[in-house]
Amino acid sequence: MEVFERLAISGLAIKNEDIQLQTILEKIKLKEINDILYGKTEKPFRKKEEALKFIFESPDIKHIVNKIFLSYQFYKLIPLNINYNKFKEVNEYFSEVAELIAHTYIMGGYAAQHKAQSKNLSRISGWKISPTDDGSICKFCQKMSKKSYPKNQYPKVPLHIGCRCGVFPKMK
Ligand SMILES: [Zn+2]
After folding, report:
1. How many angstroms separate the alpha carbon of residue 123 from the centre of ligand 1?
2. Considering 77, 108, 139, which residue would you say is the last residue of a domain?
3. pTM
4. Ligand 1 centre from 9 Cα, in Å?
5. What is the distance in A from the centroid of ligand 1 to the CA of 144?
6. Rounded to an integer, what distance in angstroms lies between the CA atom of residue 171 and that of residue 37?
7. Which one, 62, 65, 73, 136, has the greatest CB density within 10 A?
8. Is the domain of 49 the same as that of 103?
9. Residues with Cβ < 8 Å from 33, sequence gap 6 or more?
C-alpha cells in the first residue's frame, strides 16, 4: 500500500476520486457494495448492475462515494510512456561509453606498469608517444606523438578517453 501511495505522490498512479467511478465500482464485489449501501435500501441488491444503477441514480451519490473511499483505497497505475527503441539505443550508447572508459583505464594501467618497469634502464634518453598505427589515430594524438619527452618526464597517457597511445623509450 505504501508503495502505491508513493507512486501516487510521484504522479505514476492516480488515487480514489481521480479514478473513474465506473472503474472503481466494477472492482468492488456486490457484497461490499451492499455493505456500503446498508440502511439506504430496503434489502441488499442481488445483482451488481442493479446496485450500480442505484448508486449512479442516487441524489446521494457523493456521500456514497465518500463512504466507499473511507473503506477502501484505490490506486490506478498510469501506463509508462517508454519508447523501447529509444531506451535500447540510449542503453547501447552508454554501454559503449562505459566500455571505452574501462578500456582507457586499462591503457593507463599498462602505461603505469611500463613506466615502473623502465625506471632502472640506464640506456634510455627520453620518451616518445606512439599512437596506434591503424589509420584511426586522432589529430591530437598525432601531434603529441611528434613531441619528445626528457627521461625524467614519462608522458601521461592515455591522452583522452578512448586513446590507445603507448609510450616507447628513446635509446642513447
Ligand atoms: Zn592517443
Report:
1. 26
2. 77
3. 0.52
4. 49
5. 8
6. 97
7. 65
8. no
9. 25, 45, 48, 51, 52, 55
What is the CA(50)–ligand 1 centre distance, in A? 78
Note the pLDDT tens digit of each residue in 92-111. 999 999 999 999 999 999 99
Same domain flag for 68 and 104: no
H helices present in 29-124, as ranges: 30-36, 48-57, 61-71, 84-117
pLDDT, residue 1, reads: 66
- What tens digit of pLDDT does each residue of 47-86 get? 999 999 999 999 988 889 888 888 888 999 998 888 889 9
Compute, in angstroms, the gap from residue 1 CA to the centroid of ligand 1.
Answer: 55
Range of the domain at 70: 2-77
Amino acid in the structure at residue 111: A
- Give me the number of domains the chain comprises: 2
Q: Stretch 102-123: mean pLDDT, rounded?
A: 91
- 125 and 158 in a single domain? The answer is yes
Q: Which of 77, 108, 126 is the last residue of a domain?
A: 77
